[in-house]
Write a structure and sequence with these properties.
This protein is mainly alpha-helical. The protein is 62% helix and 6% strand. The N and C termini lie far apart (69 Å).
């Protein structure tokens, strides 16, 4: 078969391929959306696991003991109770969004995934340790400059 015959056959098939092209585009777009939805649900599940771990870390911080050393009463301080309440609300919010997404309503799931931080608690990138209070004022100023400039890694120098 000469090359000109191949070229004409290719042109002939392409001229009648509008249905195949349309089908390929539809399949591609559907697959793209399915991947997006699967990634969204996966992200929500991962965030729910993190929130669950954070909730388990919150223990009563006020403990009273009997004379024999057994625990008489364990309760939460106000900040600890508020942290537990926020963690519980976040976990409920994530679980509700997962359930709705699995039922077909992805609006809340997309909203949570696209919000900054995804609703997860944000740790302080520049914590102040008790030992740091003993450091000189020069070191404290450098750490403050790093924290205020947005560096989360203390090894970086401000410019």
């Amino acid at each position: 078969m000469p090359f000109t015959d191949i070229n004409s056959e290719v042109k002939n098939r392409l001229s009648t391929s509008s249905h195949e092209v349309k089908e390929a585009v539809i399949v591609g777009l559907v697959q793209k959306e399915l991947n997006r939805r699967a990634a969204t649900i996966t992200t929500l599940v991962e965030r729910a696991e993190i929130a669950q771990k954070e909730l388990f870390k919150l223990k009563p911080d006020i403990v009273s003991y009997n004379e024999d050393g057994t625990v008489k009463d364990a309760s939460y301080s106000k900040p600890q109770l508020e942290a537990k309440k926020k963690a519980t609300e976040l976990l409920d919010k994530l679980n509700t969004a997962i359930d709705k997404a699995l039922a077909g309503d992805f609006s809340k799931a997309y909203e949570i995934v696209n919000e900054k931080g995804g609703g997860l608690p944000r740790s302080n990138p520049c914590p102040v340790s008790p030992r740091s209070k003993l450091k000189s004022s020069v070191v404290r100023r450098k750490r403050t400059a790093l924290c205020s400039s947005g560096f989360s890694n203390a090894s970086k120098k401000p410019t």
